[in-house]
């Protein structure tokens, strides 16, 4: 019998995900891959949902290890780079967007707070910073979800439909989100300047 621990189980589960896709990942397949009896996996994960949550957290490790913003960083450049890092990480795993969707970033709350503090300190209104981060995150998951679904489909687009350049489409949408945030942030700054002039 293979000696396993929680980290090995998650790592093998992610490798299984890359091989067979999210719909086919099962504790039965994982146990067979590890050379253990299926009930032994319950020592580490009581339910498949618990296993998927651990897989989602581990799959996000590259993005979670990305440097946090520094006080002298330009918030606009950081916002773009942070969202691009999220996209790259989701694309690293087969069905990465589906695995991540609906997961709760329990271990990432401090990093999220620090990112929010950076935006607010840089002059972005707190509510707008929250909504922009939420919108960028959901836009990214949706974009990658579509990209990965099309990649897994293997079929050509219908006649007359253009082939989608997913990276260009992502960049265009991300720019629109940032442009909207810039308008909101500059509107607040203009309002403050008017107050000072009075």
TrEMBL record:
The record's listing under SUPFAM superfamilies reads: Homeodomain-like (SSF46689), Tetracyclin repressor-like, C-terminal domain (SSF48498)
DNA-binding region as annotated in the record: 26-45
According to the entry, every stretch annotated as the HTH tetR-type domain falls at 3-63
Transmembrane region(s)? none
Lineage, top-rank taxon, reads: Bacteria
Q: Which UniProt keywords apply?
A: DNA-binding, Repressor, Transcription, Transcription regulation
Write down the InterPro entries for this protein, in alphabetical order: DNA-bd_HTH_TetR-type_CS (IPR023772), Homeodomain-like_sf (IPR009057), HTH-type_TetR-like_transc_reg (IPR050109), HTH_TetR (IPR001647), Repressor_TetR_C (IPR004111), Tet_transcr_reg_TetR (IPR003012), Tet_transcr_reg_TetR-rel_C_sf (IPR036271)
Is Metal-binding set as a keyword in this record? Answer: no
Q: What is this protein called?
A: TetR/AcrR family transcriptional regulator C-terminal domain-containing protein
Specify the species.
Nonomuraea typhae
- Could you read off the lineage of the organism from its UniProt record? Bacteria, Bacillati, Actinomycetota, Actinomycetes, Streptosporangiales
């Amino acid at each position: 019998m293979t000696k396993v621990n929680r980290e090995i189980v998650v790592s093998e589960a992610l490798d299984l995900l890359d091989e067979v896709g999210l719909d086919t990942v099962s504790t039965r397949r994982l146990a067979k891959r590890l050379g253990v009896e299926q009930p032994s996996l319950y020592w580490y994960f009581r339910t498949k949902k618990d296993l998927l949550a651990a897989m989602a957290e581990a799959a996000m490790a590259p993005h979670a290890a990305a440097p946090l913003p520094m006080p002298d960083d330009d918030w606009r450049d950081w916002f773009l780079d942070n969202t691009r890092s999220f996209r790259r990480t989701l694309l690293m795993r087969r069905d990465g967007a589906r695995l991540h969707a609906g997961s709760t970033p329990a271990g990432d709350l401090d990093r999220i707070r620090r990112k929010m503090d950076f935006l607010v300190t840089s002059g972005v209104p707190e509510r707008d910073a929250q909504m922009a981060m939420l919108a960028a995150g959901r836009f990214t998951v949706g974009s990658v979800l579509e990209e990965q679904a099309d990649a897994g489909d293997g079929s050509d687009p219908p006649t007359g439909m253009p082939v989608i350049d997913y990276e260009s489409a992502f960049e265009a949408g991300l720019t629109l989100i940032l442009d909207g945030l810039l308008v909101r942030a500059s509107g607040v700054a203009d309002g403050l300047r008017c107050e000072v002039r009075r």
